[in-house]
Design a protein that fits this description.
Number of strands: 0
Radius of gyration: 23 Å
Mean pLDDT: 83
Low-confidence stretches: none
Order of helices and strands: HHHHHHHHHHHHHHHHHHHH
Structural class: mainly alpha
Largest sheet: none
Strand content: under 5%
Shape: globular
Helix content: over 70%
Distance between the termini: 14 Å
């Protein structure tokens, strides 16, 4: 298991590094080719179209969990029945969605509704249609690449995604460098998805001939079986859309494209914290599914504590660096074209650090297809957070986004999601949560103190200062977490696992 996890983490962290590198390069390129207002309007259109991903209805995660369990048990007939049924569902959604999208962009005045100034109505319609087609095609493509994940090869699935991202970023860079507008940038994003999906199909046909998605074993009963857990995943996707894209649309209509650009750049930087949690969650997800199916609660409890502690520690490290250097990073990153809002940046940092424990903990209920409480809590937090944001936007401006979202999560997620996971794996919630917040407080105080001292004392160019703060903060947080947060048994498990992985390599 640890061998699979280490390979998966390597692929995932490479993908995260790829995304970070692309953002570092693309944001200045966008702002160098377009005005900040045009860039903000592009982001608003992208956010609007992103809601089409909810047409998935959560089927991808539900069927992936189901296929992982059936493959682990050697039930290949059942595997084909669920897989082919999901394929039929996605083909129907893609075809129907494409037709409805074409009608919608021709009829609806998107540019007027969104208050677009630099993107014309015709260009807005084309961008929405092209981005929508890409999203609909990605639903089918995800099922193809998911074959690797369900057979225990998470790394191969992630490397396939990494290849697509590389081609995508190269295409966007070329389009911007050649002076392309919003329509051209939207159009060039389709071909990498199609090419990588075709190559993955050929590879799966060669390696796992019987596992290739098809339509010959479609079963209505299988679709009904999947719709139960998938609809709760749909609620999670809807909540994620409310919290990620909703604020962009609110800020666009109330404050304009320039404010959207500032919010988007600040969130892109601080989302490094969220991506860290996501990387560990993704690497552990398939094995959590297998362990839950076999009823191995002891190992699940150990993994739960290790995952939450590891994610929280790394998030604190990133948060400290961004707390002290985030504004300077944005100035350098955008070439001075955007003046950062330090208060906004720090509020986003606090929001994401407070979010990291329950997001990490939620992996266990989601991987087991037992995520009813998670879906309900996340949806309530999204609705409340977006409502509070809308109310506060006219009073405190763009700061309303992290404040509103934090209040929504505090009301519905901080307590209920973690308690549900503890109940699922047989862990004593009261003991777990007291130990967690005590360790979190110790690590945060230590990291903030060392980060402040390094920020005051390390001289030199900005890269040296940023790196120096990151290094000393990381060392401090890891040492404190190792000695004051993990138990002796957990330290032994980590040491043995690292030794086994190293010996295997």
């Amino acid at each position: 298991m640890w061998g699979r996890i280490s390979k998966g983490l390597a692929a995932i962290f490479f993908g995260q590094a790829l995304v970070i590198a692309a953002n570092v390069l693309l944001v200045p390129l966008y702002l160098g080719s377009w005005s900040p207002t045009l860039y903000g309007e592009w982001l608003a259109l992208f956010s609007l179209v992103s809601y089409l991903s909810t047409l998935d209805l959560g089927m991808n995660m539900a069927v992936t969990n189901q296929l992982t369990q059936t493959y682990a048990c050697g039930k290949l007939d059942e595997y084909a029945r669920y897989q082919h049924s999901a394929t039929a569902f996605y083909v129907f959604v893609a075809v129907t969605g494409s037709i409805l999208l074409a009608v919608a962009v021709c009829i609806l005045p998107l540019a007027t509704w969104m208050g677009l100034r630099e993107v014309s109505a015709i260009d807005a319609a084309w961008v929405a249609w092209l981005l929508g087609i890409q999203l609909l095609l990605s639903l089918v493509a995800g099922l193809i690449a998911g074959v690797y994940r369900t057979t225990g090869d998470l790394a191969k699935s992630q490397w396939t995604n990494n290849c697509q991202r590389t081609l995508l970023f190269a295409s966007i860079t070329a389009a911007l460098a050649l002076g392309g507008g919003v329509v051209a940038v939207a159009a060039v994003q389709i071909w990498p998805l199609v090419l990588v999906s075709l190559l993955a199909t050929c590879d799966i046909r060669r390696r796992y001939h019987t596992l290739l998605p098809g339509l010959s074993r479609v079963s209505l009963s299988a679709i009904r079986d999947l719709l139960g857990p998938s609809l709760f995943f749909f609620l999670i996707m809807l909540a994620n859309g409310l919290t990620q894209q909703g604020p962009i649309l609110l800020v666009s209509s109330a404050m304009g494209g320039a404010a959207v650009a500032m919010l988007a750049v600040s969130r892109t930087l601080t989302n490094l914290i969220r991506q860290t949690v996501g990387a560990f969650n993704s690497a552990l997800w398939p094995d959590i599914t297998r362990l839950e199916a076999s009823g191995n609660l002891t190992q699940l409890r150990t993994l739960h504590h290790l995952l939450v502690v590891s994610c929280s520690t790394l998030c604190v490290v990133l948060a400290v660096v961004l707390w002290y250097h985030g504004a300077e990073i944005i100035r350098v990153w955008t070439g001075g074209k955007l003046e950062p809002d330090s208060t906004l940046l720090r509020l986003l940092v606090v929001q994401l650090v407070m979010q990291s424990p329950w997001i990490a903990s939620s992996t266990f209920s989601a991987a087991a297809n037992r995520h009813r409480i998670l879906a309900r809590s996340y949806l309530i937090s999204g609705i409340v957070g977006l409502a509070v944001t809308a109310i506060l936007l006219g009073r405190i401006g763009i700061w309303a986004v992290p404040v509103g979202l934090m209040l929504g999560e505090a009301m519905a997620c901080y307590h209920f999601v973690v308690r549900d996971t503890c109940r699922l794996i047989g862990q004593e919630y009261g003991t777990f949560i007291i130990q967690f917040w005590r360790g979190m407080a110790i690590v945060t105080v230590g990291a903030m103190a060392v980060g402040w001292a390094s920020q005051q004392t390390i001289p030199g160019p900005f890269l040296i200062r940023w790196t120096g703060t990151g290094v000393v903060t990381s060392a401090t947080a890891i040492i404190v977490a190792w000695t004051a947060w993990l138990t002796r048994e957990e330290r032994m498990i980590l040491l043995l696992s690292l030794r086994n992985v190293a010996c295997r390599k």
